[in-house]
């Protein structure tokens, strides 16, 4: 792995203009660059100091708070400095112009600060991905899940499994190589397999949490289905508080699948409005019905709407798993001759109860509390690979002991690829490309 020796700089705060703009530098020349900008001594490490930033002609650019983070106690493990200036574009451009004129400095690439932290052992890949997810988090539960990854607790769990597998291999190798020695008790591998079995059970339990983490990270998908004019588009607009879908009295208005993201009690929920389900000869509408059925099949929850008009019929569910909801309850006020939840997109009646129903379904799927869970498909795939190798080692009772030990080595290697402890060179470009410039 080639580690760049350049000193890099970038805007590490939000888009401009802003109240404050944070410019970050990392590398061997970061401190000398700051000293040149402020024309004097560096501030005490990790203490903010008010300094005037000046250009090459000694003209003031701005007054700024500056901080110095000497290596190795910095985010990247290199010498780092931060310059907190006023967040106007002209101010930031002027500082960048000065930095760009200095030898050995260049603008940072996307994710390069975090990559240097990984290269210098400040973070592993699980923690790096947690930072990326934290930057993208839109709901409270997404924030908690990402923060759990950045804490290192998940990495510690995977490292512990890998270390236990390595210890089991060591005992097996001892029996193979030193079976005649007095200090190596016979059949020690029998006790090893008890430990390997415990690791397998822990892996199985951990993988069950993957679905929970996926729902939190990627969102809970709710499909609205029903006959034409059953109120699906009106409900989508009412839940979102915006006019997302076109609403008319003409049957078949909705031809494609529309969606909107909501934050329900800290959970990301994506609501899908679909075409009305009915037999039709219209080619476009027929395609809309096909897409509606496909969306419902892939959803985490399906809500089937039926209009609650003056003479409601028996609710005919399209799917056994669908939740029946009566819509347009405002058309027949005072009616209480049907069971089930009734909502009105016009008056808002029943909307809070519907949101509670959706949230209850999420919590039934994820549990009320957030535990350590594999947050990405990459993690899940490697864990499945680990479980398969561990299971192979346990089930191959008639196989040579050396081969069973090799299965354990492969399992530990798969775990190491999650955290980046072993060969992951091809992954790095993909992972760090997810970051914005300046992180």
Provide a descriptive summary of the structure in words.
The protein is an alpha/beta fold. It folds into three domains: 7-124, Gyrase A, domain 2 (2-Layer Sandwich); 131-216 and 376-420, Four Helix Bundle (Hemerythrin (Met), subunit A) (Up-down Bundle), CATH 1.20.120.430; 219-366, Rossmann fold, CATH 3.40.50.300. The chain is 44% helix and 17% strand. It contains 13 helices and twelve strands. It has helices at 30-38, 89-100, 112-119, 125-136, 140-150, 153-177, 188-218, 232-240, 283-298, 351-366, 377-395, 401-419, 425-432, and strands at residues 7-11, 18-26, 49-54, 60-69, 80-87, 105-107, 220-226, 258-264, 267-273, 301-307, 323-327, 341-342. The strands form two sheets. A six-stranded mixed β-sheet has the order 3-4-5-2-1-6. A six-stranded mixed β-sheet has the order 8-9-7-10-11-12, with helices on both faces. Strand 3 and strand 4 (60-69) form a beta hairpin. Helix 11 (377-395) packs antiparallel against helix 12 (401-419). The longest helix has 31 residues, at 188-218. The mean pLDDT is 86.
Mean pLDDT comes to: 86
The low-confidence runs, each spanning 5 or more residues with pLDDT under 50, are none
Could you give the order of strands across the largest sheet?
3-4-5-2-1-6
Number of strands: 12
Q: Give the C-level CATH assignment of the largest domain.
A: Alpha Beta
Q: Count of helical segments?
A: 13
The biggest beta sheet, please?
6 strands, mixed
Shape field: flat
The CATH topology annotation of the largest domain reads as Rossmann fold
Number of structural domains: 3
**Cα-atom radius of gyration:** 29 Å
Measured between the Cα atoms of the first and last residue, the distance is: 20 Å
CATH architecture of the largest domain: 3-Layer(aba) Sandwich
The class by helix and strand makeup works out as alpha/beta
Give me the CATH superfamily of the largest domain.
P-loop containing nucleotide triphosphate hydrolases
Strand content: 15-25%
The percentage helix is 40-55%
- Helix-strand pattern, N to C? EEHEEEHEHHHHHEHEEHEEEHHHH
């Amino acid at each position: 792995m080639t580690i760049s020796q350049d000193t890099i700089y970038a805007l590490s705060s939000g888009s401009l203009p802003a109240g404050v703009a944070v410019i970050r530098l990392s590398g061997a020349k970061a401190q000398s660059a700051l000293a040149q900008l402020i024309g004097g001594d560096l501030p005490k490490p990790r203490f903010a100091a008010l300094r005037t930033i000046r250009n090459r002609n000694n003209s003031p650019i701005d007054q700024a708070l500056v901080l110095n983070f000497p290596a190795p106690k910095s985010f990247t493990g290199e010498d780092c400095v931060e310059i907190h200036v006023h967040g106007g574009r002209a101010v930031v451009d002027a500082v960048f112009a000065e930095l760009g004129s200095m030898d050995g400095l260049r603008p940072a690439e996307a994710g390069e600060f975090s990559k240097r932290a990984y290269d210098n052992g400040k973070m592993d890949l699980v923690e790096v991905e947690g930072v990326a997810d934290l930057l993208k988090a839109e709901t409270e539960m997404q924030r908690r899940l990402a923060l759990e990854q950045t804490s290192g607790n998940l990495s510690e769990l995977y490292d512990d499994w890998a270390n236990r597998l390595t210890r089991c291999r060591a005992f097996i190798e001892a029996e193979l190589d030193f079976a005649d020695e007095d200090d190596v008790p016979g059949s020690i591998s029998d006790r090893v397999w008890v430990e390997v079995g415990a690791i397998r059970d822990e892996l199985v339990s951990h993988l069950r949490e993957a679905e929970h983490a996926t729902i939190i990270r990627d969102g809970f998908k709710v499909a609205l289905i029903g006959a034409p004019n059953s109120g699906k588009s009106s409900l989508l607009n009412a839940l979102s508080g915006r006019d997302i879908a076109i609403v008319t009295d003409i049957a078949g208005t909705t031809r494609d699948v529309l969606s909107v993201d909501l934050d329900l009690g800290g959970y990301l929920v994506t609501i899908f409005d679909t075409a009305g389900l009915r037999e039709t000869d219209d080619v476009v509408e027929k395609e809309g019905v096909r897409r509606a059925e496909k969306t419902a099949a892939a959803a985490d929850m399906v809500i089937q709407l039926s209009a609650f008009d003056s003479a409601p019929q028996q609710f005919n569910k399209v799917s056994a798993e669908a939740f029946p909801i009566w819509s347009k309850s405002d058309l027949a006020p005072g009616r209480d001759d049907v069971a089930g939840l009734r909502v009105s997109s016009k008056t808002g009646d029943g909307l809070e109860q519907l949101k509670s129903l959706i949230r209850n379904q999420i919590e039934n799927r994820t549990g009320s509390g957030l535990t350590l869970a594999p947050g990405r498909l990459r993690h899940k795939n490697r864990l499945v690979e680990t479980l398969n190798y561990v299971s192979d080692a346990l089930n191959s009772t008639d196989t040579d002991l050396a081969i069973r030990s090799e299965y354990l080595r492969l399992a530990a290697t798969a775990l190491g690829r999650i955290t980046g402890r072993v060969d992951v060179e091809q992954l790095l470009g993909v992972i760090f490309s997810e970051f914005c410039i300046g992180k």
